[in-house]
Amino acid sequence: MKYDIIVIGSGPGGYISAVRASQLGKKVAIIEKYATLGGTCLNVGCIPSKALLDSSHHFYDAVHHFEEHGISVEKPAFDFGKMIDRKAKVVETTTGGIKYLMDKNNIDVFEGLGSFVDKTHVNIAKNDGTSEVIEGTNIIIATGSKPASLPFITLDKERVITSTEALKLPEVPKHLIVIGGGVIGLELGSVYKRLGADVTVVEYQDKIVPGMDTDVSKELQKVFKKQGIKFATSHKVKSVERDGNAVVVKATDKKEREITFSGDYCLVSVGRQAYTEGLGLEKIGVEVNERGQIAVNNHLQTNIATIYAIGDVVKGAMLAHKAEEEGVVVAEYLAGEKPHINYNLIPGIVYTWPEAASVGKTEDELKEAKVAYKAGKFSMRALGRSRASGDIDGFVKVLADKNTDEILGVHMVGARVADLIMEAAVAMEFRASAEDLARICHGHPTYSEAVKEAAKAAWDGKPLNA
After folding, report:
1. CATH for 2-147+273-341, options being 3.40.50.720, 1.10.15.40, 3.50.50.60, 2.160.10.10
2. Fold match between 160-270 and 345-459?
3. Which residues of 135-149 are buried (b: 16+ CB within 10 A; e: fewer)?
4. Residues with catalytic annotation?
5. pTM, to two decimals
6. How confident is the model over 275-308, as pLDDT tens digits?
């Protein structure tokens, strides 16, 4: 079988790339080693974690907030098994949707482990022991990533777990120790805290979500502490040991004192690493960097002219939406078009409650680059919409160039800011000024008014409702 494009991996980057290539008239095949399409994001990542976040959020609201709205219910209880079943149904429906897209776009799907025979041929080792070789004029590697760990930690996947196991635990932990205060650790820690677990987050850096703006980190940590999550920042984990149903984590703080944490589960969420095992990259000479990521040029082309790579296997943020954009870029490039991607405007989002979202430069990055800037900040507490819903935590911060007023970065904590951040991304894509954003009429009452107010604060220092 010969194809114009073969895509290895059916996650958000892979399947979107395949769809776009087919739309542009290419004959496309996609290879997936698992029985369901959708990769990590749809099966054991973005989608199932959001399903559990939503279920646990409903329960938390019933326990803590219904009464203030005048809603009286008997003592709320939850069926954890039903929550897990619902999550599984959401995943099943979503992955089934990918299969529909493959059929709709006439994309041939091969189930099995794909590996390179040479620069244009891929062998598919199928689960029944047979194999098949297919040929592609171009091949796109979209095999994603897997959870990273620390060299001294043994992941038994029962008590010492990754995010994959955390999505299907048989019970709610009594005390969940989370190693890593990044997005994954905070989201899954929030799920189990809402359901009654004690949660302790141990983070090596001096703040949680280290890659986000410092004000975002501080606000999130303050709110999570209010919710009962404990934090041990500036702590270096030295060992993780399991003893029966107990897990003991030892770490040293910034004064080199040894601190011991004891729980019944330990979630290791110290990031993710590129997954290229079994591809046979060394056989054909595809270059990788020191982090195991595939080296690519500005067109996402490897050192082998016929082979491209996208998503988590290449440098940059390990985000599903980044992989999707790269998949579209490669498909369009191979069809002779001139696509582009603005890596500065890929939003970062934390789906806790309140949510956090950022796009563009952080304040620390602007300081380090010695860029003259001005900042405008507006509290969600000052919004009528926030007071009406009871979601008064958080803020919006707009950073703009001091001389030109161009928006350089926007950072948010609050209700629905995962959706709200795209207003900032669109404005920045068109190189809007803070004044532009401040002069747009925003609906009242909405959460989006905080963006207008923060933009006005950055532009002339005079928000209207603060």
Report:
1. 3.50.50.60
2. no
3. ebebbbbbbbbebeb
4. 444
5. 0.96
6. 999 999 999 999 999 999 999 999 999 999 999 9
